[in-house]
Amino acid sequence: MNLIMYTLRSVAYVIVEPSLMLILILLGVMFYMKNKKVTAMQQMIIGDKVNSALELTLSQIVLGILAGVIASLLLSHLGIVFRENSGIELLFMISILLMFIKPRFVCFSYSASILGLVSLIFTYFNITTSDGLEILRIDIMSLMAFVGVLHIVESILVMLDGEKGAIPVFSNKGGRISGGYALNRYWVLPIAIFIAYAATSIGSTAGTESISTPSWWPILRTNDILNVINTMILGLIPFFGVLGYSSVTFTQKKKKKVLSSGIAILIYGIILTLVSQLARFGLVGEVLVLIFAPLAHEGMLMLQKKVEEKREAIFVSGEDGISVLEVVPYSIAYEAGIRVGDKIVSLNDQNIDDVTEIYKMVRNSIYDINVKVLGMDGNGKEVTLKPQRNKNLGAVLVPKMVQSDKVVAFEDKKFSEVLEKIKEKRKDIK
Q1: I need a labelling partner for 269 at 20 to 30 A (CA). Which of 24, 47, 176, 353 fits?
Q2: Which of the pair, 291 or 111, is modelled with greater confidence?
Q3: pTM (predicted TM-score)
């Protein structure tokens, strides 16, 4: 069978095999519950939902499946293979568990490095089962090339979908309030990878097929991989994993932030895939690759943090106007032509110092409101707000200052506690 068709068929298996479909449904429900909290937070802060929980969930699943197809095709053509006793399935289980335990570490770089080091220890001390069966014997080059490919795919997801579900946040540095975004997304990733089975055990593995690989396969060649290909039977087996992205920015628009993050992740993925080839040179090379993966990942995050700190915040209100941080599609503000990054200079030729004045005027007025707006490009324009009964402005504005009793801190608080405090103070803020 053609390698491409066999790969596509293996990934499609996740939606026809009942047990795998059940996992997909459970992950979808978990994502939906998380997204319900996100939209509730948006409702409290913005006054309306930018995206529905269902929309956020469907994009995570649909784009995740497409990304899984791309990753599976890359992995199958590179010829990344794992033995049946490698324990590679642990990598996927850990990624799903970390989504609930420590979201920051929903990254295969960390779990793969741990799994790789454990594998080296098991191999060095020849640790086996009571029956003499080798366990956690994993090819380090294949493992880290696999992680590199996943990051390449993750970069695409971040650039395409990372900005959805963003929550407006505020920071107070040097007595100046600046607005920004908290970005947090997960994607379900069904992925098919080659598992090598001994001829004596293939009968006990339901749902697998042996295939004839083309003459140019594999692209990545090592003695171990070639030995596996020549002596064992290969099957493309589907697994489920979770990819995650989390970041905060006060210096860029959402789209620009996810693009810069995606490019950084893409570069990291390509470099890791190349560096993984050092594992060809024995134990020292394997250890170096396993150390490089998490350290380089941390370095990438630190570099992005440093760049963020050196840049100037762009959503800051001042003498030139009130900065617009978020605009809900088809809201009163959106229909008037107000966009993210604009600054509201005046309403009905009256300068505005307090954002609550704007919210109250829109909520209480029955007449059109003339608004002078300054765009991010420095050009001014005049727009007309058309208030509607019981309808909010549909925009988040950055205040010039905030009284301490109206601040809701996020540190060390559960989501439910933060949500309740926002509910209590919402009337005072808007």
Answers
A1: 24
A2: 291
A3: 0.87
